[in-house]
């Protein structure tokens, strides 16, 4: 874990809300000089605290309006089988998140696709054709009341 001082936390909180800010704008918002701010951001990237900066799209505006939350149970839960499943889903761009969980199913996967036909094709590829997948339980979002990407900074 990286030790973060108050300036680091202000920088991170501000970037979590809007990573498109110029260094000058960021420095003004966090009350630091631009060179200090730039050094801090570079250090936070180098240390892996800032994993990446992306644009977050509105799924329904780009034709990916179906969200599926899927529980997967494997037949064999040995580490190598779990890693193999993680590697399989990592190749699928529609799989936005994959979590190993306990207790209950082995994995919970968040999938974003265009429609039910696209989900069916993906489910066939990822689950039905895999001999180690024992059980799949899918839930489909009818409304998203909250979506955040921020991490709480203590």
UniProtKB/TrEMBL annotation:
The record ties this protein, via Pfam families, to: AsnC_trans_reg (PF01037), HTH_24 (PF13412)
Extract the InterPro entries matched here. ArsR-like_HTH, AsnC-type_HTH_dom, Dimeric_a/b-barrel, Tscrpt_reg_AsnC-like, Tscrpt_reg_AsnC/Lrp_C, WH-like_DNA-bd_sf, WH_DNA-bd_sf
Q: Please verify whether the record's keywords include Transcription.
A: yes
The record's listing under SMART domains reads:
HTH_ASNC
UniProt keyword list: DNA-binding, Transcription, Transcription regulation
Q: Which residues belong to any copy of the HTH asnC-type domain?
A: 4-67
PANTHER family of this UniProt entry?
LEUCINE-RESPONSIVE REGULATORY PROTEIN, TRANSCRIPTIONAL REGULATOR AZLB
Quote the protein name from its UniProt record. Lrp/AsnC family transcriptional regulator
């Amino acid at each position: 874990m990286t030790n973060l001082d108050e300036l680091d936390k202000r920088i991170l909180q501000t970037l979590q809300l809007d990573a498109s800010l110029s260094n000058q704008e960021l420095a003004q918002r966090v009350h630091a000089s631009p060179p200090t701010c730039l050094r801090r951001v570079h250090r936070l990237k180098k240390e892996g605290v800032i994993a990446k900066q992306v644009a977050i799209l509105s799924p329904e505006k780009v034709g990916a309006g179906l969200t599926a939350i899927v529980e997967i149970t494997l037949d064999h839960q040995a580490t190598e089988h779990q890693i193999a499943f993680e590697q399989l889903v990592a190749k699928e761009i529609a799989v936005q998140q994959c979590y190993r969980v306990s207790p209950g199913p082995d994995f919970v996967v968040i999938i974003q696709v265009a429609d039910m036909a696209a989900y069916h094709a993906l489910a066939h590829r990822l689950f039905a054709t895999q001999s180690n997948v024992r059980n799949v339980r899918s839930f489909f979002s009818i409304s998203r009341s909250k979506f955040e990407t921020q991490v709480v900074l203590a």
